[in-house]
Design a protein that fits this description.
globular, 430 residues, 13% helix, alpha+beta, homodimer, Immunoglobulin-like, Sulfite Oxidase, Chain A, domain 2, 7 helices, 3 domains
């Protein structure tokens, strides 16, 4: 590992210049990694310490936590961003994760009045308003309805919101970490609405549901009936197990592809209405003020977006020139991701990244680009495409249409300036 | 919620008797759940306590844990099963989980000499033997090779092993909980072997790799080269984050569909050999002694299997007659699950369960059967089918071929006796 092997390095560069970074090219590129190793002599002969004694038993802890060496891979808040931590945000450490699943323990959380502690036995969900028979469901009731499983991303409308004003927070966790992606289990909202009966509502085309949580904020939001009857889930498990307290235990709403604040936690009531409620959370908040002072509202869908998670400010390159992996996440609230392009020169030339799996509707996609880094500085960006043909815009394109007054729905292309040292910085390029 | 509503209950029974438990039938069946509710008056008018104050802030804990009310949903060992906890087993609480992903914190673990504590910086992986150039990889080296993402189940060969002797452990966690299912990220073993160069090995058809871990047991196992070059992964992430210490931090082998003991943790060495090593773990252990005293060996693949996780002894029915969900898991080491049948009468009649998603190769499938329980006792079983056409056998069929001397590879159909009280028991039926 310790010797530079030019005969191996050479073909890998050739493969890189040909742009064949996946499959065959990767095998080539891999050659040079060997030349970069910091390992000891290839023939390890000594007995390693771990083999000379016993380790921990299975009784060490009933519910496991990450090993001590990973204690920087945690959700984090930004102290100056909010007045207090009760109405605040914890960001997912996306710079340090790989794959697509977000463990609940480090998944983005946002509360408007703090995370509340509710026993399953005390949970009640009322469905009322324009229904044939108002109902109240206990948790045990919900468990008796047919269940569904789906993996979906949740993204806060404010994710990347600081970037409207220019490059701000220095790290993918803070610019793009208001997101998580979990496998949810629950009951289709359609099933519960039909249980209450919708004939009293008449023509469903112009009807709404108003959803609210049991916390003090209630976080009430109006959802058009068409969406409510489409793919919304009343969920009680995430990644196989019960929702964590901070994710809405015991029951939250899952509104695939739509902004996270509509995924009401500690769900307590769903009212069928003949108009939108125009609540605080959909008028003074979660609307987008344009350059002329008017506001866009009902901007529910999260448009296609992507970000390079490594290299990034919190995940610098720690080795010299040679083969390396550029990776990131892409998602779209309108359906499946169909492709991701990556540029190393700030958008002059683009390469097609490799998706780890075919895109799934309203779920995170992991992308990889295997390159042979020449050691010079890079302006790294990624650009997502979704199944509707939508292409992720530049910051300039987005500002041209929306101005600079917005907080929410910033899905622009993100730029990391990767320096010769391997360190990376959040920058804005014109 | 509190009134029995026969007009709603009646159609649900009709739907059930017609066997249309999915989709449309389920909507009908759901009707009766309403009649079983234990909720308060449908019109909740009082202010609930949670709405009268603030909850916890986002600074409550940097890495989250399950809420206190779920503290029975943990991995557990069985004290009398092994002499000590260093060489023992923790079972996944599958009776309480749903969906397919297993969180690392409650996922099955098995150690032969305890879980060892290794820093990433101290990790070394040697590839030696019949290779063109022996190599030692550091963790940082591995990160520079092209990565893959796959969701696979790991099942211990001994899972359900106690059942050879008859119905034993009373709970799905203990009969079938030596399993987990995670999304792995890592490097294809093929890529690393080709990096070391395989021309020295000559004809690969009769070659093997011998894999071992850095713990005292080393847990060495021989794997045919054909499998090693097919789908084996050198993995460093599970469900997005670093492997937990007890799951092999920082690097373990993933051997899709094959018995769990080959998924070597704390991976330290891969030797290309011209024959199987015939290690302790593949001769005196992990072989299957037949009725005539001879042993099957190289029984690597985990055959198709399934189990009802609820209702089950640890997950009894807690309500009276009416609609309910029967659910469980199915998997096959030979490919994707194509279907699961469920019987309520000990195998006299079978119904097709609903798969939550189309089966994926060597990954857990979740199945559901929505029934209208009449309150009488049931003998509940499930039966898996995989894409090769294989059908999960009965215990009698398995014993007829393998006798009673085996410990490993018991993939027989499991029976739960669900009583009128809703309680369930592990039973054996002839």
């Amino acid at each position: 590992m310790s010797d530079k092997d030019d005969t191996v390095t050479t073909p890998s560069r050739r493969a890189f210049l040909q742009g064949s970074a996946a499959a065959g090219g990767a095998l080539m590129a891999a050659g040079a990694a060997r030349a970069q190793g910091q390992g000891p002599d290839p023939l390890i002969t000594e007995v390693q310490d771990w083999a000379s004694g016993l380790g921990d038993g299975v009784d060490a802890t009933p519910y496991g936590l990450p090993i001590e060496y990973e204690d920087d891979v945690v959700r984090r808040n930004v102290e100056w961003l909010t007045a207090d931590t009760i109405s605040s945000i914890n960001f997912t450490p996306i710079h340090a994760l790989d794959g697509t699943i977000t463990p609940q323990g480090c998944a983005f959380e946002r509360h408007h009045s703090g995370a509340i502690n509710m026993r399953k036995e005390d949970f009640r969900l009322m469905i009322n308003g324009l229904v044939d028979r108002p109902l109240v469901f206990s948790y045990a009731d919900l468990e008796r309805f047919p269940r569904e499983n789906h993996t979906y991303f949740l993204e806060c409308a404010a994710n990347t919101g600081m970037e409207w004003a220019g490059a701000q927070l220095n790290g993918a966790q803070f610019t793009h970490g208001m997101i998580h992606n979990m496998e949810y289990t629950g009951v289709s909202l359609r099933v519960l609405l039909e249980e209450a009966g919708l004939s009293a509502a008449g023509d469903l085309a112009d009807k709404w549901v108003y959803v609210e949580g049991a916390d003090a904020s209630s976080n009430g939001r109006s959802i058009p009936m068409e969406k409510a009857l489409d793919d919304v889930i009343v969920a009680f498990k995430a990644n196989g197990e019960a929702l964590r307290m901070e994710h809405g235990y015991p029951v939250r709403l899952v509104v695939p592809g739509w902004e996270g604040n509509m995924w009401v936690k500690w769900l307590r009531r769903i009212e069928v209405t003949d108009q939108a409620i125009e609540s605080r959370e959909e008028t003074s908040k979660y609307t987008d003020t344009l350059a002329d002072g008017t506001s866009r509202k009902w901007t529910w869908v999260m448009d296609a977006k992507s970000v390079v998670t490594s290299p990034s400010p919190q995940s610098p390159i720690t080795h010299g020139p040679g083969p390396m992996v550029i990776t990131g996440l892409a998602w779209s609230g309108r359906g499946a991701i169909t492709g991701v392009d990556v540029t190393l020169d700030g958008g002059v030339t683009w390469q097609k990244a490799r998706l780890a799996k075919p895109g799934e509707k309203m779920a995170l996609s992991r992308f990889y680009l295997d390159i042979d880094w020449d050691g010079s500085e890079m302006l790294v960006q990624s650009r997502a495409h979704d199944e509707t043909g939508y292409v992720q815009p530049t910051k300039a394109q987005l500002r041209e249409v929306r101005g600079l007054n917005s907080i929410y729905h910033n899905n622009c292309i993100q730029t990391w300036h990767v320096k010769e040292s391997g360190e990376a910085e959040n920058v804005e390029i014109s």
